[in-house]
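Hello again, I could really use a second opinion on something today. I've dropped the whole record in just underneath, so have a look.
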Amino acid sequence: MPAARPHIEPHRHPTADSVVVKEIYLSVQGESSHAGLLCSFVRLTGCHLRCTYCDSEFAFRGGNRMKNAEVVAQVKALRSPLVEVTGGEPLLQPGVYPLMEALLAEGLTVLLETSGAIDVRLVPPEVHKIVDVKTPSSGESDRNDYRNFLSMNARDELKFVIGSREDYEWSKALIAEHRLLEKPYGTLFSTVFDKLHPRELAEWVIEDRLPVRFQLQMHKYMWDPAARGV
Protein backbone atom coordinates (compact mmCIF):
# COMPACT_ATOMS: atom_id res chain seq x y z
CA MET A 1 0.00 0.00 0.00
CA PRO A 2 1.32 3.49 -0.78
CA ALA A 3 2.31 5.60 2.20
CA ALA A 4 0.07 8.47 3.16
CA ARG A 5 0.82 11.69 1.32
CA PRO A 6 2.61 14.40 3.31
CA HIS A 7 0.52 17.21 4.80
CA ILE A 8 -1.16 19.08 1.98
CA GLU A 9 0.11 22.43 3.30
CA PRO A 10 3.46 21.71 5.00
CA HIS A 11 4.34 25.42 5.17
CA ARG A 12 1.52 25.93 7.71
CA HIS A 13 2.68 23.18 10.04
CA PRO A 14 3.83 24.48 13.47
CA THR A 15 7.37 23.19 12.85
CA ALA A 16 7.64 24.29 9.21
CA ASP A 17 10.36 26.83 10.07
CA SER A 18 12.72 24.17 11.43
CA VAL A 19 14.01 20.61 10.96
CA VAL A 20 15.68 18.00 13.16
CA VAL A 21 19.21 17.63 11.80
CA LYS A 22 21.52 14.70 12.40
CA GLU A 23 24.55 16.18 10.65
CA ILE A 24 25.71 18.78 8.12
CA TYR A 25 29.02 18.19 6.36
CA LEU A 26 31.03 18.67 3.18
CA SER A 27 32.11 15.74 1.01
CA VAL A 28 32.13 14.46 -2.56
CA GLN A 29 28.82 13.31 -4.04
CA GLY A 30 29.09 9.55 -4.39
CA GLU A 31 25.98 8.70 -6.42
CA SER A 32 23.62 9.82 -9.18
CA SER A 33 24.52 11.82 -12.28
CA HIS A 34 26.14 14.36 -9.92
CA ALA A 35 28.71 11.80 -8.68
CA GLY A 36 32.19 13.17 -8.16
CA LEU A 37 31.10 16.76 -7.46
CA LEU A 38 31.83 18.68 -4.28
CA CYS A 39 28.62 18.60 -2.24
CA SER A 40 27.27 19.75 1.11
CA PHE A 41 25.01 17.24 2.86
CA VAL A 42 22.14 17.98 5.23
CA ARG A 43 21.09 14.74 6.89
CA LEU A 44 17.75 14.90 8.68
CA THR A 45 16.71 12.60 11.52
CA GLY A 46 14.02 9.92 11.28
CA CYS A 47 12.79 7.21 8.93
CA HIS A 48 9.63 5.10 8.83
CA LEU A 49 11.29 2.26 6.87
CA ARG A 50 13.72 -0.41 8.04
CA CYS A 51 15.48 -1.62 4.90
CA THR A 52 17.71 -4.63 5.40
CA TYR A 53 20.62 -2.91 3.66
CA CYS A 54 20.21 0.50 5.31
CA ASP A 55 23.53 2.35 5.66
CA SER A 56 22.22 5.24 7.76
CA GLU A 57 20.56 3.64 10.77
CA PHE A 58 22.37 6.15 12.97
CA ALA A 59 19.99 8.78 11.57
CA PHE A 60 16.85 7.06 12.85
CA ARG A 61 16.95 9.07 16.06
CA GLY A 62 18.78 11.90 17.79
CA GLY A 63 19.93 15.10 16.18
CA ASN A 64 19.08 18.71 16.99
CA ARG A 65 16.18 20.90 15.92
CA MET A 66 17.48 23.83 13.92
CA LYS A 67 15.77 26.78 12.33
CA ASN A 68 15.84 26.54 8.56
CA ALA A 69 17.77 29.82 8.44
CA GLU A 70 20.49 28.27 10.63
CA VAL A 71 20.74 25.28 8.31
CA VAL A 72 21.05 27.52 5.25
CA ALA A 73 23.77 29.56 6.98
CA GLN A 74 25.79 26.43 7.80
CA VAL A 75 25.44 25.14 4.25
CA LYS A 76 26.57 28.48 2.79
CA ALA A 77 29.60 28.44 5.10
CA LEU A 78 30.71 25.15 3.50
CA ARG A 79 31.03 27.00 0.15
CA SER A 80 29.72 24.33 -2.18
CA PRO A 81 27.24 25.24 -4.93
CA LEU A 82 25.69 21.75 -4.64
CA VAL A 83 23.74 20.56 -1.57
CA GLU A 84 21.88 17.33 -0.90
CA VAL A 85 19.07 16.94 1.63
CA THR A 86 18.98 13.34 2.82
CA GLY A 87 18.16 11.18 5.83
CA GLY A 88 16.70 9.02 7.14
CA GLU A 89 13.63 10.05 5.20
CA PRO A 90 13.69 13.85 4.92
CA LEU A 91 10.12 14.17 3.62
CA LEU A 92 8.75 13.08 7.00
CA GLN A 93 9.54 16.56 8.33
CA PRO A 94 7.19 19.39 7.26
CA GLY A 95 10.04 21.88 7.54
CA VAL A 96 11.99 20.25 4.74
CA TYR A 97 9.81 21.82 2.04
CA PRO A 98 10.49 25.46 3.03
CA LEU A 99 14.11 24.46 3.74
CA MET A 100 14.56 23.31 0.14
CA GLU A 101 12.96 26.51 -1.10
CA ALA A 102 15.32 28.56 1.07
CA LEU A 103 18.35 26.71 -0.30
CA LEU A 104 17.14 27.27 -3.85
CA ALA A 105 16.66 30.97 -3.10
CA GLU A 106 20.38 31.16 -2.29
CA GLY A 107 21.19 30.02 -5.83
CA LEU A 108 22.25 26.53 -4.76
CA THR A 109 21.68 23.38 -6.78
CA VAL A 110 19.56 21.23 -4.46
CA LEU A 111 19.37 17.43 -4.52
CA LEU A 112 16.87 15.41 -2.51
CA GLU A 113 17.53 11.77 -1.61
CA THR A 114 14.25 10.10 -0.65
CA SER A 115 13.04 6.56 -0.02
CA GLY A 116 10.30 6.46 -2.64
CA ALA A 117 7.72 5.65 0.02
CA ILE A 118 6.27 9.19 0.06
CA ASP A 119 4.82 10.99 -2.94
CA VAL A 120 7.25 13.70 -4.04
CA ARG A 121 4.62 15.92 -5.70
CA LEU A 122 5.04 18.73 -3.11
CA VAL A 123 8.80 18.97 -3.58
CA PRO A 124 9.77 22.21 -5.37
CA PRO A 125 10.13 21.35 -9.08
CA GLU A 126 13.60 22.95 -9.24
CA VAL A 127 14.93 20.32 -6.81
CA HIS A 128 16.74 17.34 -8.35
CA LYS A 129 14.91 14.39 -6.79
CA ILE A 130 16.75 11.06 -6.41
CA VAL A 131 13.94 8.65 -5.63
CA ASP A 132 14.55 5.08 -4.46
CA VAL A 133 12.54 2.13 -5.68
CA LYS A 134 12.77 -0.48 -2.93
CA THR A 135 13.63 -3.93 -4.30
CA PRO A 136 12.53 -7.21 -2.66
CA SER A 137 15.78 -7.73 -0.73
CA SER A 138 15.16 -4.43 1.07
CA GLY A 139 12.21 -6.00 2.88
CA GLU A 140 10.23 -2.82 2.10
CA SER A 141 9.22 -3.22 -1.55
CA ASP A 142 5.53 -3.14 -0.60
CA ARG A 143 6.02 0.44 0.65
CA ASN A 144 6.92 1.91 -2.75
CA ASP A 145 4.64 4.79 -3.72
CA TYR A 146 4.30 4.44 -7.48
CA ARG A 147 2.58 7.81 -7.73
CA ASN A 148 6.15 9.09 -7.79
CA PHE A 149 6.45 7.91 -11.38
CA LEU A 150 3.95 10.65 -12.27
CA SER A 151 5.38 13.28 -9.90
CA MET A 152 8.92 13.40 -11.31
CA ASN A 153 10.41 15.54 -14.05
CA ALA A 154 13.49 15.60 -16.30
CA ARG A 155 15.71 16.82 -13.44
CA ASP A 156 15.02 13.66 -11.44
CA GLU A 157 16.35 10.11 -11.17
CA LEU A 158 14.96 6.76 -10.01
CA LYS A 159 17.42 4.60 -8.09
CA PHE A 160 17.19 0.81 -7.88
CA VAL A 161 19.52 -0.79 -5.30
CA ILE A 162 20.11 -4.38 -6.43
CA GLY A 163 21.14 -7.09 -3.97
CA SER A 164 20.45 -10.27 -5.96
CA ARG A 165 19.41 -11.67 -9.30
CA GLU A 166 15.82 -11.67 -7.99
CA ASP A 167 16.09 -7.92 -7.36
CA TYR A 168 17.43 -7.41 -10.88
CA GLU A 169 14.64 -9.38 -12.57
CA TRP A 170 12.02 -7.71 -10.40
CA SER A 171 13.41 -4.29 -11.34
CA LYS A 172 13.41 -5.13 -15.05
CA ALA A 173 9.79 -6.27 -14.83
CA LEU A 174 8.75 -3.10 -12.98
CA ILE A 175 10.52 -0.91 -15.52
CA ALA A 176 8.71 -2.69 -18.35
CA GLU A 177 5.31 -2.61 -16.60
CA HIS A 178 5.45 1.13 -15.97
CA ARG A 179 7.40 1.94 -19.16
CA LEU A 180 9.90 3.82 -17.04
CA LEU A 181 12.55 4.06 -19.73
CA GLU A 182 10.13 6.26 -21.70
CA LYS A 183 9.93 8.76 -18.84
CA PRO A 184 11.91 12.01 -18.95
CA TYR A 185 13.91 11.18 -15.82
CA GLY A 186 16.94 8.93 -15.47
CA THR A 187 17.13 5.38 -14.10
CA LEU A 188 20.02 4.32 -11.88
CA PHE A 189 21.14 0.79 -10.95
CA SER A 190 23.59 0.15 -8.13
CA THR A 191 24.45 -2.78 -5.91
CA VAL A 192 23.92 -3.41 -2.23
CA PHE A 193 27.45 -2.81 -0.97
CA ASP A 194 29.21 -6.09 -0.01
CA LYS A 195 26.16 -8.16 -1.06
CA LEU A 196 26.46 -8.25 -4.85
CA HIS A 197 29.69 -7.68 -6.77
CA PRO A 198 29.32 -4.68 -9.09
CA ARG A 199 30.77 -6.72 -11.97
CA GLU A 200 27.82 -9.13 -11.78
CA LEU A 201 25.27 -6.35 -12.07
CA ALA A 202 27.24 -4.68 -14.86
CA GLU A 203 27.34 -7.97 -16.80
CA TRP A 204 23.57 -8.44 -16.46
CA VAL A 205 22.95 -4.90 -17.71
CA ILE A 206 25.30 -5.47 -20.66
CA GLU A 207 23.77 -8.84 -21.52
CA ASP A 208 20.25 -7.39 -21.55
CA ARG A 209 21.31 -4.16 -23.30
CA LEU A 210 19.41 -2.37 -20.52
CA PRO A 211 19.68 1.41 -21.05
CA VAL A 212 20.09 2.39 -17.40
CA ARG A 213 22.91 4.25 -15.68
CA PHE A 214 25.08 1.73 -13.79
CA GLN A 215 26.69 3.37 -10.77
CA LEU A 216 28.87 2.64 -7.78
CA GLN A 217 28.52 4.25 -4.38
CA MET A 218 31.88 5.97 -4.78
CA HIS A 219 32.10 7.21 -1.22
CA LYS A 220 32.03 3.65 0.14
CA TYR A 221 35.13 2.78 -1.85
CA MET A 222 37.00 5.88 -0.67
CA TRP A 223 36.03 5.85 3.01
CA ASP A 224 34.94 3.34 5.62
CA PRO A 225 31.22 2.69 4.84
CA ALA A 226 30.48 2.91 8.58
CA ALA A 227 32.13 6.32 8.90
CA ARG A 228 30.04 9.39 9.65
CA GLY A 229 30.10 12.54 7.60
CA VAL A 230 31.24 11.06 4.25
